[in-house]
Design goal:
By secondary structure, the chain is of the alpha+beta class. Helix content is about 50%, strand content about 10%. It has six helices and four strands. It has helices spanning about 35-40, 60-70, 80-90, 100-120, 130-150, 175-195, and strands at about 10-15, 20-25, 30, 45-50. Strands 3-2-1-4 form a four-stranded mixed beta sheet. A hairpin with a 5-residue loop joins strand 1 and strand 2. The longest helix has 25 residues, at about 100-120. The radius of gyration is 24 Å and the shape is elongated.
Length: about 200
């Protein structure tokens, strides 16, 4: 019962040639994007290298697979609003946080999928998405906490982790007016953040 039993399998190496053909070095056969999609679905890990340059092109090949799947009739997984929002995040200051957030969200969905399937199966009367919405809400809270680390104003959202600023404390000599003004701006910012995140009591 050691770790080696679970982590022995190395990812299969796929080589992509100039003629855009994909070669599975594990089975010594040419494969298609559909074959690779099947490998992903069965949990078989692989990496794709450009046969000429040796560059790791796994990400672009996986993206191609998603593109192919999305173009199949009735196979669409990605809502248009989600795709638009995703495009907006490219080059945005939030870009570095998005991959981790999506990863955590999908990981949660994967772990809870059996529960969601059961709810979907019995959900003709009520909403089958209650648990899913709750999971998304929890993920959003975690995302906001992660975002707070990169946003100076959001640090006050820690909710008891640090000590809250004392509003009545006398300011240090020489800059009292400026500090009070800054506190007022921070309080106003906090009220806006609370409204946006539904934190108003």
């Amino acid at each position: 019962m050691t770790d080696t039993t679970t982590k022995t399998a190395e990812p299969v190496t796929i080589k992509k040639y100039a003629n855009r053909r994909l070669y599975n070095t594990g089975t010594s056969t040419y494969v298609t994007l559909e074959d690779l999609a099947g490998m992903v679905k069965t949990g078989e890990d692989f990496v794709v290298y450009d046969a000429k340059t040796g560059e790791d092109i796994t990400r672009s090949v996986l993206t191609q697979i998603i593109f192919e799947q999305e173009n199949k009739e009735g196979q669409n997984l990605l809502p248009i609003a989600f795709l638009r929002q995703l495009i907006r995040f490219y080059g945005d200051s939030m870009q570095m946080l998005v991959p981790r957030y999506l990863e955590v969200s999908l990981d949660s969905l994967t772990r809870e999928q059996e529960k969601f399937r059961q709810q979907m199966a019995q959900a003709f009367g009520g909403s089958p998405f209650g648990a899913l919405e709750e999971q998304v809400r929890r993920n959003m809270e975690m995302f906001e906490r992660a975002f707070a680390m990169f946003t100076p104003f959001a640090r006050r959202e820690g909710g008891g982790v640090g000590t809250a600023p004392e509003p009545e404390k006398p300011a240090a000599k020489g800059g009292g007016g400026e500090i009070d003004d800054l506190k007022r701006q921070l309080d106003e910012m906090q009220r806006k953040v609370d409204k946006l995140t539904g934190g108003n009591d």
